[in-house]
């Protein structure tokens, strides 16, 4: 369900979080809101973490190849140095930022900025991802989007890693992750654990 404020007085700031699994349209929705704000004559800043360079080094790009120019930052507090003249601050892939992103979002909202944040709410193990649960807690508006499970065709909230690797952050695409519904994700986790514990047959 899309939960976007229709109108709030310009002298107030707030935080919107767009979350969900991979391929659910989070970045597409962030770009849509950013473009609507620009049409309304507002000054919009779009930022993304240096970690995310899948499609472009400079633009924020959705899986559907919709793009919008952005500023790349390596630390969340750098965002504060860029935002003076802007009314709307859009932050993509928030799960990759350090924990200070929560304080940054609060500071911006407290200074009458509209803060739009998009990110994965769960990692490949189905656990809360980085600062996202804290951002969800402080947001006035939350939108949770769903992909379509590649196994069952049902709504998918989880991102199943289909390649080897145990690090939490592994930037990848369709070759590395698939959207899964809960029951399909659970089966995938069980099979993954079995593959790691079973002896290799030679």
Task: Characterise the protein shown here.
The chain has 202 residues and is of the alpha/beta class. It has a domain at 14-145: P-loop containing nucleotide triphosphate hydrolases (Rossmann fold, 3-Layer(aba) Sandwich). It has 4 helices and 12 strands. The strands form 4 sheets. A 6-stranded parallel β-sheet has the order 5-2-6-7-1-8, sandwiched between helices. Strands 3-4 form a two-stranded antiparallel ribbon. A hairpin with a 6-residue loop joins strand 9 (147-148) and strand 10 (155-156). The mean pLDDT is 87.
Protein topology:
Elements: E1 14-20, H1 26-39, E2 44-49, E3 59-61, E4 67-69, E5 71-73, E6 88-91, H2 101-110, E7 114-120, H3 132-138, E8 141-145, E9 147-148, E10 155-156, E11 158-161, E12 177-180, H4 182-197
Parallel strand pairs: 1-7, 1-8, 2-5, 2-6, 6-7
Antiparallel strand pairs: 3-4, 9-10, 11-12
Task: List the main descriptive attributes of the protein structure presented here.
single chain; 202 residues; alpha/beta; Rossmann fold; six-stranded parallel β-sheet; two-stranded antiparallel ribbon; 12 strands; 23% helix
